[in-house]
Write a structure and sequence with these properties.
With about 600 residues, the chain is an alpha+beta fold. The protein is built from 26 helices and 18 strands.
């Protein structure tokens, strides 16, 4: 029998716990305005950037990005698991944990995660075994040999082989119903319902080279897989699971941490094979994004380890596009003392082929001469203007100024404005309202301007979720939940769930709200949105949130209008549908 901690108790514990008292007992806090501050306990810093909000019951570090509730702080600071952190806080609050007994089919989320980690690790060992003993392994070993990988490096990275069979892994590990369920949850096998019975299970990865993906603690949480059959996509990652979130993980980071700290620099490449090849050549401070664009979380994690990041991309247009996205993601993280650069390889080349062609020493010379982010920014934008024309120089200023205001490093931002002035032939500086953004007491207009600049990087639903997480009482401003629920937009279902939770609990705090969604796969995304600074003052917060809701409702009306138009092409509309369509069309004309 397993023991569960009731959700109601965790919620009561959050209400009885003051995050300021908890953190202050371990890290002395100083009151500053409505919040408390200290030097962050999770990274070295001389100027305090670690803030604790008693209103939100939430902490956030502007330096390294760590954030969360009192539970999260105890887990991270004392290196405890979730259950142990609950026990610690319950002891502080003088509460006894009421464990409820369940059947063996239900365990704590902690036990569930351990089961998933165990099944993923067993799968990795099985893939490695297939690379050694499977009769069909020659295609896989031939491919790895053609890429120049040694037996030692293959073993070091745990590289394996998924045979081109329908259910090899399923038959090996899915011997019990609970194992089958774990394999499905971990994204290793799929379950297909055919309507004629209970359905069937089959392997997700077939005929592929398998690259285990480790989290920051070195635990295997997923896989990247390279196709050998030409039957599917060239690369296939594990799907999002309770263990694996590709927007948070970086391939090779666990083994690269020490080298990144020693070299004071991280190198970001695009592929698994690039990482493995560079490590084989002795370049160990290298990681790769997992088939996705560089995320803010990636950049924050790397800057925590070293102040210098070099992105290495192919020199084709796709590589240039990926570099620009990485640049835009990195800009808001460029505090003074940090720097980022970009290395573009010759077309048709990648880090794997380049290091084999020129050797490690010359490859590192290329890294040393990488193009600074600041140069790439101006190079890309100046390609779109004619600096011989006055309006061309004005256009450059209008494009660059909003981007420069996203740079938190005041010295770097000032130097960048000087450079912009040189290109434009006149002194270009922030508008007065923009300049006040760096002061201690920005004006309302400035905050709204910055919010538009920063908020524009988020979809409307994400902005709404972020504001609601930070100010749960905003839920009272939304009356028609059911209407919003019909809008077909990513994340809308999460927003509606948060609205209902806030409406049912009028005294909800940010920390309690996040805690209620801890077991959801998107919890880490919610934490990021809860810590995002929108630069909106309290007296305009309700109005701003209401504007976002109105924009979502406008999207809903457009969606319904388009649905009715499509219906009218297929059949004659009912009378009430005609009236609804006419009303929607009149409203669009008024707008």
């Amino acid at each position: 029998m397993a023991r569960l901690i009731p959700r109601e108790f965790i919620d009561e514990l959050m209400q009885r716990t003051d995050i300021v008292d908890v953190i202050d007992s371990m890290v002395p806090l100083q009151k500053k305005g409505r919040e408390y501050m200290a030097c962050c306990p999770f990274h070295d810093e001389k100027t305090p950037s670690f803030t604790v909000s008693p209103q939100k019951q939430f902490f956030y570090c502007f330096g390294c990005g760590e954030s969360g509730s009192a539970i999260d702080f105890v887990m991270k600071y004392q290196n405890l698991g979730f259950i142990e952190a609950i026990e610690d806080l319950a002891s502080r609050a003088g509460l006894e944990i009421p464990h409820s007994i369940t059947t063996s089919e239900f365990t704590t989320s902690h036990d569930h995660a351990n089961r998933l980690l165990e099944i993923v690790n067993k799968a990795s060992l099985w893939f490695q075994e297939q690379l050694r003993v499977n009769p069909d392994r020659k295609t896989a070993t031939g491919y790895l040999g053609s890429r120049g990988l040694t037996v030692k490096i293959i073993s070091e990275f745990g590289i394996g082989y998924a045979p081109d069979s329908w259910n090899g892994l399923c038959n090996e590990l899915g011997t019990t119903p609970s194992n089958l369920a774990s394999l499905v949850t971990a994204g290793l096998i799929n379950h297909k319902q055919d309507g004629k019975g209970p359905g069937r299970h089959y392997d997700r990865f077939r005929g592929r080279i398998m690259f285990p993906i480790e989290d920051s603690r070195g635990r295997i949480v997923g896989f990247g897989a390279r196709d050998l059959t030409d039957k599917g996509p060239k690369y296939l990652n594990s799907p999002e699971t309770p263990l694996f979130h590709k927007g948070r993980e970086l391939y090779g980071l666990h083994r690269a941490r020490r080298a990144i700290g020693k070299q004071n620099r991280s190198i970001v490449v695009e592929g698994y094979m690039d990482v493995v090849s560079l490590v084989q050549f002795g370049i160990e401070n290298v990681v790769a994004a997992l088939g996705t664009a560089t995320t803010p979380y990636h950049v924050q994690r790397l800057f925590r380890l070293a102040p210098d990041i070099v992105f290495c991309f192919d020199g084709d247009q796709a590589g240039r596009n990926a570099a620009w996205k990485a640049l835009m993601t990195t800009l808001p993280e460029l505090r003074d003392g940090r720097q980022a650069s970009f290395l573009f390889l010759d077309e048709g080349e990648d880090p794997d082929t380049t290091v084999r062609s020129v050797g490690a020493e010359d490859f590192l010379k290329k890294i040393d001469s990488a193009l600074p982010l600041t140069d790439l920014l101006f190079e890309n934008l100046m390609a779109n203007v004619d600096l011989q024309r006055m309006d061309g120089r004005a256009k450059l200023a209008s494009m660059v100024k909003p981007l420069l205001m996203n740079i938190p490093g005041t010295t770097l931002r000032s130097i960048m404005f000087d450079r912009l002035s040189t290109y434009c032939g006149i002194t270009v500086k922030p508008d007065e309202t923009d300049q006040s953004s760096t002061s201690q007491n920005p004006t309302t207009d400035t905050k709204q301007r910055l919010e538009r600049n920063l908020g524009g990087q988020l979809p409307l639903v994400a902005q709404a979720i972020s504001l609601l997480l930070q100010s749960p009482k905003l839920a009272s401003q939304v009356s028609n939940f059911s209407a919003l629920d019909e809008l077909l937009v990513n994340g809308l279902d999460v927003f509606v769930d948060l609205l209902y939770t806030c409406r049912e609990n009028p005294n909800m705090t940010t920390a309690r709200l996040l805690e209620g969604f801890r077991d959801r796969p998107y919890h880490s995304r919610l934490e990021y949105l809860a810590s995002r600074d929108h630069h909106v003052q309290d007296d305009v917060l309700i109005e701003h949130f209401g504007e976002i809701i109105q924009k979502l409702l406008a999207q809903l009306r457009k969606q319904r209008h388009d649905q009715l138009i499509e219906k009218s092409c297929q059949r004659t509309l009912e009378q009430h549908e005609k009236e609804e369509l006419l009303s929607l069309q009149k409203e669009r004309v008024r707008q």
